Amino acid sequence: MKQRIVTAIIAASVFLPIVIYGGWPFLVLTYILATIGLFELTRMKKMSLFSFPSIVSFLVLWLFLYPYEHMINIWILIIGLFLLLIYTVISKNAFTFDDVGFMIASLLYVGVGFYSFFHVREAGLSYIFYALFLIWATDSGAYFIGRALGKRKLWEHISPNKTVEGAIGGILCALFVVSVYEWLLPFAPSFPMLLIATVILSVFGQLGDLVESAFKRHYGVKDSGAILPGHGGILDRFDSLLFILPILHLFYLIV
């Protein structure tokens, strides 16, 4: 527990000033986090970091993350897909169609999530803190209420410790924390819409947590990485955010 607390304090002291400042330092941070996230996925798959598919995937990720206009990044992803498919022929199926699917899914999972991370911050500091507070409240509520009141397993084969009661508690805690946040620092155009969005994002945040638990269980690893002592890897800390940030980004664009 002491190690977790120390790591959290050090990480927050580095992370929060960059989030608050925004701009190019935040873009650099986004690139670093996304690169580590993709590395964690390829390592779980036991793919060589210096193989052609890995090199192509990292290049595609770095090009994809840049805040282009006119959807150029979508074409970058398509070109990356074609290159990986061509490599199945060159490698005589040593690199398979299934492997291509893994790399593209990984690029979308990490790339779209962190692309949205940058753009939500660009939309305004209040939006990124809304996302951070929402996930913190959801995770904390699910943990403590699950421990106190949890009886019915939510998804036992994927994450044995999560309960239905905890999941509901997480949503209720998110609603409470977001309501206080909106009261102190109003930013939403409509409070009822904010509450509806909070419920949806809280649910998706918990699904993001379960998704990462599912692929870690599939690949037989406890944590996605060890870069954060006591907390695991980048994907262990950003699993929920990678699910809610694209939705929040879309919501901001629509509104």
Automatic annotation (TrEMBL):
<comment type="similarity">
    <text>Belongs to the CDS family.</text>
</comment>
<keyword id="KW-1133">Transmembrane helix</keyword>
<feature type="transmembrane region" description="Helical">
    <location>
        <begin position="102"/>
        <end position="121"/>
    </location>
</feature>
<dbReference type="GO" id="GO:0004605">
    <property type="term" value="F:phosphatidate cytidylyltransferase activity"/>
</dbReference>
<keyword id="KW-0812">Transmembrane</keyword>
<dbReference type="Pfam" id="PF01148">
    <property type="entry name" value="CTP_transf_1"/>
</dbReference>
<comment type="pathway">
    <text>Phospholipid metabolism; CDP-diacylglycerol biosynthesis; CDP-diacylglycerol from sn-glycerol 3-phosphate: step 3/3.</text>
</comment>
<feature type="transmembrane region" description="Helical">
    <location>
        <begin position="191"/>
        <end position="213"/>
    </location>
</feature>
<protein>
    <recommendedName>
        <fullName>Phosphatidate cytidylyltransferase</fullName>
        <ecNumber>2.7.7.41</ecNumber>
    </recommendedName>
</protein>
<keyword id="KW-1208">Phospholipid metabolism</keyword>
<feature type="transmembrane region" description="Helical">
    <location>
        <begin position="166"/>
        <end position="185"/>
    </location>
</feature>
<dbReference type="GO" id="GO:0005886">
    <property type="term" value="C:plasma membrane"/>
</dbReference>
<keyword id="KW-0443">Lipid metabolism</keyword>
<keyword id="KW-0594">Phospholipid biosynthesis</keyword>
<feature type="transmembrane region" description="Helical">
    <location>
        <begin position="6"/>
        <end position="36"/>
    </location>
</feature>
<keyword id="KW-0472">Membrane</keyword>
<feature type="transmembrane region" description="Helical">
    <location>
        <begin position="127"/>
        <end position="145"/>
    </location>
</feature>
<feature type="transmembrane region" description="Helical">
    <location>
        <begin position="48"/>
        <end position="66"/>
    </location>
</feature>
<keyword id="KW-0444">Lipid biosynthesis</keyword>
<feature type="transmembrane region" description="Helical">
    <location>
        <begin position="72"/>
        <end position="90"/>
    </location>
</feature>
<keyword id="KW-1003">Cell membrane</keyword>
<dbReference type="InterPro" id="IPR000374">
    <property type="entry name" value="PC_trans"/>
</dbReference>
<comment type="pathway">
    <text>Lipid metabolism.</text>
</comment>
<dbReference type="GO" id="GO:0016024">
    <property type="term" value="P:CDP-diacylglycerol biosynthetic process"/>
</dbReference>
<keyword id="KW-0548">Nucleotidyltransferase</keyword>
<keyword id="KW-0808">Transferase</keyword>
